[in-house]
């Protein structure tokens, strides 16, 4: 079973019906997406020393504990940086270009920065926020978008649209 | 007293005795294997060393040719050292460093490092991004952060925000490389001058990066031959000594997306630099010419800071007033670099460093005796200090 899943992922299981790529979670990252499906932004923290870490991984770089828990965060953050990709791009992305990719610094865990998209609504297009509305430092909040494949990804909305 | 003997040092123990390359072009008819053999045989001929004497090979990942095939094809003898360094463009200088270590410790006597690439006519690596998804790319690719230009664009935007860097600063970098390429008949951009207007009106690739902030896609191969310093003195050209070498993989580093590091604007160059200068007899102020990995223009100000040519946040300002041009404070990428000579994962920076210290550069820095060469910043990296 695992063999089959691995093969599928490697040969294109990450592509959604709309042509965008869906995450293919590994064992360490799977809980992030499971919580996102419930509308929760959670990050992996060490059960021993409490330090958050990202991306998820087997043990704590501070105290080397293998015990971890997933701490629920407020879902608030600020834009640390952003880009506006233009073609050449994979076709489904080119169709929405220029779109934005933002890097969000989490309010409750400032050294964790999540790559995502700033959108007008959870299910809106990648280019639904005009570029002139995007600025470094802008406060944002998490929104949850269920992809075609059923997997939920975290997106970002401006706190002051 | 053997136990009390000092640790073997790399400092000036080995030298680059030969360099070789194929033409650079958007499209070359020959295979990567053929191109690799041509570059390696040219480098051995340049050194005056027979292929049968080669007993060490070093390459870096994303290299499609391997030492078994190359050794067989060129007629190498028994090979006693071989290795492949990770992280693509971050490994260019490390190939020379690994050969230097092998030769200095008696594991081999004639080493060859090479790069063969058909990026000009082959597919872009990022179009194959689906197979990367179960890796850390699960956190970036689905959101449309697809290409290296997008990843470095995020760093560049933040760098501009924090330190007041502008597109004019990035243009300074692109222009210096292009001006040098205009002096180098082997460069892909030999006869193609660049103006500020061309730069400012160029199409975007990933805002804030435009077409001219990105390196060229190139077909071509290069190689160099490393031997002991003693042997190099009997070779055809003036030896170019490997004075210091280092690799750098910072704490909590994450490859191209260093945004998960505590401080994403101090990248791998800072880590490599600390080691590089620690074992050198000279400092940044004594570097006559620099060959700094330039897959994207913003990597230059970041690297200038990392390698200690200026303080943090001053890398952009450093590029002003023609500092990177011939006659400036730090002549940069004197063959044209990845931006304007050829993008062969940085290996052309090594061979150009050798030419400068031989005094045979097409844009020669008069009397150059020291050169910094760096590998890709943004990924686990490596660097060399060369001297004549």
UniProtKB/TrEMBL annotation, chain A:
It holds the Pfam family OB_ChsH2_C. Residues 35-66 form the ChsH2 rubredoxin-like zinc ribbon domain. It comes from the Bacteria. Residues 70-145 form the ChsH2 C-terminal OB-fold domain. SUPFAM superfamilies: Nucleic acid-binding proteins (SSF50249). Gene3D superfamilies: 6.10.30.10. Residues 1-21 are annotated as: Disordered. This is OB-fold domain-containing protein. The lineage of its organism: Bacteria, Bacillati, Actinomycetota, Actinomycetes, Kitasatosporales.
């Amino acid at each position: 079973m695992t063999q089959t899943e691995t093969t599928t992922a490697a040969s294109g299981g990450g592509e959604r019906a709309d042509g965008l790529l869906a995450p293919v979670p590994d064992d360490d990252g799977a809980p992030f997406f499971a919580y996102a499906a419930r509308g929760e932004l959670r990050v992996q923290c060490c059960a021993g020393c409490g330090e958050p870490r990202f991306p998820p991984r087997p043990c704590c770089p501070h105290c080397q504990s293998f015990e971890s828990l997933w701490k629920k965060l407020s879902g608030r953050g600020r834009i640390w940086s952003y880009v506006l990709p233009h073609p050449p791009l994979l076709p489904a992305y080119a169709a929405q270009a220029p779109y934005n990719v933002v890097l969000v610094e989490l309010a409750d865990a400032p050294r964790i920065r999540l790559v995502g998209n700033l959108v007008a609504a959870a299910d809106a297009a990648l280019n639904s926020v005009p570029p002139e509305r995007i600025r470094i430092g802008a406060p944002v909040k998490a929104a949850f978008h269920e992809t075609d494949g059923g997997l939920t990804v975290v997106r970002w909305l401006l706190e002051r649209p | 007293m053997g136990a009390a003997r000092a640790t073997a040092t790399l400092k000036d123990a080995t030298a680059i005795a030969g360099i070789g390359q194929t033409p650079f072009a958007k499209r070359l008819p020959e295979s990567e294997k053929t191109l690799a053999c041509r570059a390696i045989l040219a480098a051995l001929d340049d050194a005056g060393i027979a292929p049968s004497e080669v007993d060490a090979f070093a390459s870096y990942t994303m290299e499609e040719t391997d030492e078994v095939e190359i050794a067989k094809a060129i007629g190498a003898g028994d090979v006693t050292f071989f290795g492949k360094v990770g992280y693509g463009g971050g490994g260019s200088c490390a190939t020379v460093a690994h050969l230097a270590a092998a030769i200095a410790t008696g594991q081999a006597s004639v080493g060859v490092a090479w790069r063969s690439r058909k990026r000009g006519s082959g597919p872009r690596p990022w179009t194959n991004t689906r197979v990367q998804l179960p890796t850390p790319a699960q956190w970036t690719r689905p959101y449309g952060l697809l290409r290296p230009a997008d990843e470095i664009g995020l760093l560049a935007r933040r760098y501009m925000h924090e330190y007041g860097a502008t597109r004019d600063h990035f243009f300074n970098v692109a222009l210096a490389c292009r001006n040098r390429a205009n002096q180098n008949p082997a460069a892909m951009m030999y006869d193609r001058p660049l103006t500020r207007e061309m730069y400012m009106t160029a199409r975007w690739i990933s805002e804030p990066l435009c077409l001219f902030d990105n390196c060229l896609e190139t077909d071509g191969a290069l190689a160099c031959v490393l031997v002991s310093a003693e042997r190099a003195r009997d070779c055809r050209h003036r030896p170019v000594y490997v004075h210091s070498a280092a690799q750098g993989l910072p704490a909590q580093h994450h490859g191209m997306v260093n945004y998960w590091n505590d401080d994403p604007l101090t990248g791998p160059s800072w880590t490599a630099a600390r080691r590089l200068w620690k074992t050198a007899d000279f400092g940044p102020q004594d570097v006559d010419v620099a060959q700094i990995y330039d897959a994207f223009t913003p990597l230059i100000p970041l690297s200038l800071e990392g390698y200690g040519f200026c303080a943090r946040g001053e890398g952009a300002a450093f590029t002003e007033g023609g500092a990177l041009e011939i006659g400036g404070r730090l002549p940069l990428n004197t063959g044209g670099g990845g931006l304007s000579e050829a993008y062969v994962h940085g290996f052309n920076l090594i061979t150009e460093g050798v030419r400068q210290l031989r005094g045979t550069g097409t844009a020669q820095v008069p009397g150059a005796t020291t050169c910094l060469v760096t590998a890709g910043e943004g990924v686990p990296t490596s660097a060399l200090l060369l001297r004549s």
